[in-house]
Automatic annotation (TrEMBL):
The name this protein goes by in its record: Flavodoxin
Domain (Flavodoxin-like) ranges: 4-157
Pfam family, one: Flavodoxin_4
NCBIfam families registered for this protein in UniProt: PRK07116.1 (NF005501)
Alphabetical list of PANTHER family matching this protein: EXPORTED PROTEIN-RELATED, FLAVODOXIN-LIKE DOMAIN-CONTAINING PROTEIN
One MF term in the entry's GO annotations: oxidoreductase activity, acting on NAD(P)H
Annotated organism of origin: Robinsoniella peoriensis
Length: 157
């Protein structure tokens, strides 16, 4: 039987709550992707071109360091990968996460929350970081998407 992991990055807790609901809806393990250096409110100021998030997101090759690692990634065949949309794509820490593992043969299923944007070019930017894996269609959810909606979506994979 295939085993699923819900891994997520979340700064203000919106994606975290969605990821928790998803994991409990489908009986998956849950893992938080934690940055080595936490993002402060100042770091997240998208109106400031010099804020940490603006500078990082302007450089697609930048890989923010991660503090933790999934134990025994080999046991998972399916990874639901959650994050907030930043500048119309996934935060580059999601690329850091993907590049830290051998993902051969796994299914990667991105999902996100956002203020209002859809997934935009998210998968285009993630593709090169998913070597050997199947990168599936990604989906943006409303912050309060319920268990039934999440379960129905997740079970199609
Ligand atoms: C640096 C930054 C960039 C963002 N860019 C977008 C965007 O392009 N489109 C959008 O709809 N929301 C954008 N947002 C809003 C977040 O996607 C939204 O608040 C998300 O639900 C936060 O999730 P979290 O609580 O899990 O961190 C941005 C937020 C930040 C901090």
């Amino acid at each position: 039987m295939s085993k699923a992991l819900v891994a997520y990055f979340s700064v203000s807790g919106i994606t975290a709550r969605l990821a928790e609901r998803l994991a409990s809806a489908i009986g998956a393990d849950l893992h938080e992707i934690q940055p080595a250096q936490k993002y402060t409110a100042e770091d997240l100021d998208w109106t400031n071109k010099k804020s940490r998030s603006s500078v990082e997101m302007n450089d697609k090759s930048f890989r923010p360091a991660i503090a933790d690692k999934v134990e025994n990634m080999d046991q998972y065949d399916v990874i639901y990968l959650g994050f907030p949309i930043w500048w119309y794509v996934a935060p580059t820490i999601i690329n850091t996460f993907l590049e830290a593992y051998n993902l051969e043969g796994k299914k990667i299923i991105p999902f996100a929350t956002s203020g209002s944007s859809g997934m935009g070019r998210t998968n285009v930017e993630l593709e090169d970081s998913c070597k050997g894996a199947d990168l599936m269609d990604s989906k943006r959810f409303h912050a309060d998407a319920g268990i039934d909606e999440l379960k129905a979506w997740a079970e199609q994979f």
